[in-house]
Amino acid sequence: MGKTLFEKVWDKHVVQEVDGGQEILFIDRHFIHEVTSPQAFDGIRKRGIDLYDKHRIVATADHNVPTKDQHLPIADTLSRLQVDMLSQNCQDFGVELYGLGHENQGIVHVIGPELGVTKPGMTIVCGDSHTSTHGAFGAIAFGIGTSQVEQVMASQCLLVQRPKTMRITIDGELGQGIYSKDIILYIISKLSTSGGTGYFVEYAGSAIRSLSMEARMTICNMSIEMGARGGMIAPDQTTFDYVKGRAYAPNDRWDEALEYWNSLYSDDDAVFDQEFVFRAEDIEPMITYGTNPGMGMGITQRIPTTDEVERPENLLKSLEYMGLEAGASLLDMPIDHVFIGSCTNSRIEDLRIVADYVKGKKKSDSIQAFIVPGSKQVEAQARKEGLHDILSEAGFELRGPGCSACLGMNEDKIPKMEYCVSTSNRNYEGRQGPGARTLLVSPLTAAVIAVEGKIVDPRNYMNEEVVA
What we know:
Blueprint lengths: L4 H9 E5 L3 E5 L2 E4 L5 H10 L9 E4 L16 H17 L3 E2 L9 H8 L7 E4 L13 E4 L2 H10 L1 E5 L2 E8 L8 H12 L7 E6 L1 H4 L3 H9 L8 E3 L4 H7 L10 H8 L12 E6 L6 E3 L7 E3 L13 H11 L14 E4 L7 H11 L9 E4 L4 H9 L2 H7 L3 E2 L20 E4 L14 E4 L2 H10 L16
Parallel strand pairs: 3-4, 3-6, 4-5, 6-7, 9-10, 9-12, 10-11, 15-16, 15-18, 16-17, 18-19
Antiparallel strand pairs: 1-2, 2-8, 13-14
């Protein structure tokens, strides 16, 4: 019997099977940031040991960093402490750090791929749930807890339970104005936030293969939002073209690497524990209405009523927080903020999509719109291409890189009771700040809403097709 893509990569990294069904898995690359690494470094010190392999660790500051005046000392005491601790720990243990001001600094799940650190067939972990982003390259990538961060630092291995496998196939051609964010929000709305629990998901089908690497990263990034351990997409020529020539790509042994990477696909007779199939033509621009990413719908649809959902009490609780009504349409609803950024949608392709739409237009005076690039490299490329000027002329504020308003751990918070249309990954209560109300959308939908000042169907405002 053939193997799935997941099984091929996983089996290659199993060091030892352990009684009880667990396995010791070797980890190729370990990304760290300022939030989940301090306790792990302290644990290493207390054990009186060194890092197993400091060269397999990539460190950056992203969660707690300000996105304004990054050349100045961080004003928030806790944020400054965490960033300073990361700097000290990396210095003490000889780990290279892409800290504030470094040309490679940025969101951990953005800098890994753009530097060529992320490659097909790897095992990758980070103390951050959205590590699943890197699975877009045909890697097994998943988030770990702080104790596991220490475990990898000490041994370069993890004691883990093998997940089940799931394949989600999306065939067909995406419609005008449909972005990869719409694809993953559609999937989660169908399977729920627990539909992938216990599984590693492979995304397949003609609609997936048509996507760019940036778009594939968006889909794998949000696999965690349906409860999955991670998401993967088999590498192909699109993957190879993206990786080639990057700083940490195997450019000096390219043919050798390519030979292995070309073997990374699910065999025709491979068996998955569960499979789902969707049609690309059924997907329209998506928007969330509740307080988890599974509470999403096509932008022209209406919020479900209590008799249309399995748990009406959860729906009512979410709608009370959001200030919305069951059965209502969101079209023409005024919005206060538009945030474009996060590890989900802050890459250069995302900024290009926004700039392509807003060029020659102005954002609504009623909306505060800010864009946070995922890295210094994205920021530099946006300036080089003139995107910064286009966005500024349209009334958007382009800030420095960081996680920003994706989560309420830094200065970029959405005020209580105000509505934010966001390209980030989560819309939980208080995620963007205490009392903030978040509606998740694609970069294109966010750009159109920023200009119109209210929720609209972006397809009604497009002069030409935007490629996902």
